[in-house]
Write a structure and sequence with these properties.
There is one protein chain. This protein has 2 domains: 20-97, Roll (Ubiquitin-like (UB roll)), CATH 3.10.20; 106-170, Orthogonal Bundle (DNA polymerase, domain 1). Strand 3 (69-72) and strand 4 (75-78) form a beta hairpin. Helix 3 packs across helix 6 (159-170). The protein has a 5-stranded mixed beta sheet, with helices on both faces. It is built from 6 helices and 5 strands. 31% of the residues lie in helices and 15% in strands. The structure holds FE2/S2 (inorganic) cluster (2 copies).
Length: 180
């Protein structure tokens, strides 16, 4: 008779879910929140599924399209590649936190003025990415904007108008940038 190590029986689903849960406290759009969630959850899913902040879009879910871009402490990140647990104690800004229809952020107003979207799916990510770019407070040319925004894809091909909108706002020194 041979000695064979048999695999352990699988843990119960209750035990698995308890082991996988974690509590994360974070500031989102300047409000403190604490969420108990699966420790494997991405920031994108935490925002959309747990906090119902669905302005942040899930495009590729693989770090390829930029639709999920948000700010963490003022820096742009791909929320689909960020584990929610790693943002504990930090400040997250999403598209919902920068303006509303009555008080749009200058970039939102510029996107409308320059017709910088068609379906609008990529637009929240484009705007959050552009806010971080403007937050670098350096002179920008069209070519620099194209390069710096190259991680944000637009399937509708609104690129020229997106660049025009960002350039217009870049020329205004009083653009509000979320604090870190
Ligand atoms: Fe995150 Fe595409 S959904 S990069
Ligand atoms: Fe449709 Fe950019 S406006 S993907």
């Amino acid at each position: 008779m041979s000695n064979i190590d048999l695999p352990s029986p699988p843990a119960s689903s209750a035990a698995r879910s308890m082991a996988a849960s974690i509590s994360t406290s974070v500031r989102v759009n300047d409000s403190a929140v604490t969420v108990v969630h699966d420790c494997r959850m991405t920031l994108l899913d935490l925002l959309r599924d747990e906090l119902t902040l669905t302005g942040t879009k899930k495009g590729c879910d693989h770090g390829q399209c930029g639709a999920c871009t948000v700010l963490i402490d003022g820096q742009r990140v791909l929320s689909c590649l960020t584990l929610a647990a790693t943002v504990a104690g930090r400040s997250v800004q999403t598209i919902e936190g920068i303006g509303d229809p009555d008080h749009p952020h200058p970039l939102q107003a510029a996107f409308i003025e320059h017709d910088a979207f068609q379906c609008g799916f990529c637009t929240p990510g484009q705007i959050m990415s552009a806010i971080a770019l403007l937050g670098q407070r350096r002179p920008l040319t069209k070519e620099m904007i194209k390069e710096q925004m190259s991680g944000n894809l637009c399937r509708c091909g609104a690129y020229n108008n997106i660049v025009d909108a960002i350039l217009k706002v870049a020329q205004n020194a009083s653009v509000p940038i979320p604090s870190r």
